[in-house]
């Protein structure tokens, strides 16, 4: 089979396509014919060696959707031909999904309902599970609460806008001008350009004086901002940053409002099947769609890795073997 592999860590150019043997599923694993593999920033961190160590040669790809073609001896709940999607491979212990076939342990894969599209599901894992974990599991977002999603056009952001809307929260999000109409169509009540000088005032106005829940993917830019626009008792969930030194300029603002800060990694999810099933249900009933903005061949994996870190797009980039 064809598989994207890197033989040494480095920039996107280390990604090439190798002809290798099709993997055998372990006792509690599925072998999937890969329909789609989401392209995530974290795939580039595994590639460049800045995340946890992987064994080389290495196939990236944390997210996958596909059809079961073989099963390990201990697998009970799946059959060949099942449509499934999952996340959490392509890491220190498992090879990833940028290949014609991939194995995945059964503790991080679920069935895909008929109403959910395989290509969209390939891009759903990290983005939608992270959004679900942040807003539902960590922030306990409730109906009618104001929810600020920074960067609503991103993979996580556009899933978060829809999940917040699905629980009838009032969604405020930020994005470049070209995505404002799309994000309103996905359920945002207010969409603001993240570059505007009066962003904090605009968020306060849109939230009637303060936001209840904030999903922050750029803590180095917004740690203080979040406190400034929070209402008393607000919950902020931090999932990322550009440089690892976010800092308050006035932490007293956060203290005076009893703001809770929760930092999280999707990889710590106790049972990935739980949010995967919830996300699958939302896709099935049409409450969540993954906007696949570009599709790439395996041979274009290096372009996909450059684009996910440098280009502006709505939703997700997806590899299709
Ligand atoms: N902790 C976790 O478990 C976890 C899970 C998933 C992702 N993450 C992290 O979360 C971040 C986002 O991931 P992603 O997959 O959603 O990436 P993505 O698809 O590249 O989205 C990033 C978004 O940020 C927007 N953006 C750029 N500058 C901004 C600014 N100053 N203010 C607000 N938004 C801005 C981008 O918009 P434009 O391109 O239009 O500028 C883009 O829509 C990454 O750092 C990733 O590593 C963490």
TrEMBL record:
Record-annotated Enoyl reductase (ER) domain positions = 10-319
User: Which Pfam families does the record cross-reference, listed alphabetically?
Assistant: ADH_N, ADH_zinc_N_2
Q: Report the record's Gene Ontology biological process terms.
A: small molecule metabolic process
Keyword presence, Cytoplasm: no
Listed A to Z, the keywords are:
NADP
Record carries keyword NADP: yes
- What Gene Ontology terms describe what this protein does at the molecular function level? adenyl nucleotide binding; anion binding; oxidoreductase activity, acting on the CH-OH group of donors, NAD or NADP as acceptor
**Domain of life (superkingdom):** Archaea
The record ties this protein, via InterPro entries, to: ADH-like_N, ER, GroES-like_sf, NAD(P)-bd_dom_sf, Zinc-ADH_QOR/CCCR
What this protein is called in its record is NADPH:quinone reductase
């Amino acid at each position: 089979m064809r598989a994207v592999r890197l033989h040494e860590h480095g920039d996107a150019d280390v990604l090439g396509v190798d002809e290798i043997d099709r993997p055998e599923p372990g006792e509690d694993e599925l072998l999937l014919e890969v329909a789609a593999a989401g392209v995530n920033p974290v795939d580039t961190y595994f590639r460049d060696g800045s995340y946890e160590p992987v064994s080389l040669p290495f196939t990236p790809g944390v997210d996958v959707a596909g059809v079961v073609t073989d099963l390990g001896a201990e697998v009970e709940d799946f059959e060949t031909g099942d449509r499934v999607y999952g996340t959490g491979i392509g890491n220190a212990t498992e090879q990833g999904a940028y290949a014609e076939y991939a194995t995945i342990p059964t503790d991080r894969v679920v069935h895909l309902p008929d109403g959910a599209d395989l290509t969209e599901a390939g891009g759903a894992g990290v983005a939608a599970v992270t959004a679900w974990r942040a807003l539902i599991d960590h922030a306990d977002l409730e109906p009618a609460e104001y929810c600020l999603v920074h960067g609503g056009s991103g993979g996580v952001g556009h899933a978060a806008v829809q999940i917040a809307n699905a629980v009838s929260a009032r969604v405020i999000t930020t994005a470049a001008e070209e995505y404002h109409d799309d994000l309103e169509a996905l359920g945002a009540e207010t969409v603001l350009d993240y570059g505007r000088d009066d962003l904090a005032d605009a968020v306060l106005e849109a939230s009637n004086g303060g936001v209840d829940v904030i999903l922050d993917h750029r803590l180095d830019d917004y740690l203080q901002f979040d406190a400034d626009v929070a209402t008393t008792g607000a919950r902020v969930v931090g999932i990322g940053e550009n440089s690892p030194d976010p800092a308050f300029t006035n932490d007293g603002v956060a203290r005076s409002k009893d703001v809770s800060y929760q930092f999280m990694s999707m990889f710590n999810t106790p049972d990935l099947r739980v949010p995967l099933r919830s996300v699958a249900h939302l896709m099935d009933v049409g409450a969540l769609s993954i906007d696949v903005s570009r599709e790439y061949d395996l041979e274009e994996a290096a372009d996909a890795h450059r684009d996910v870190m440098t280009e502006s797009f709505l939703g997700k980039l997806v590899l299709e073997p």
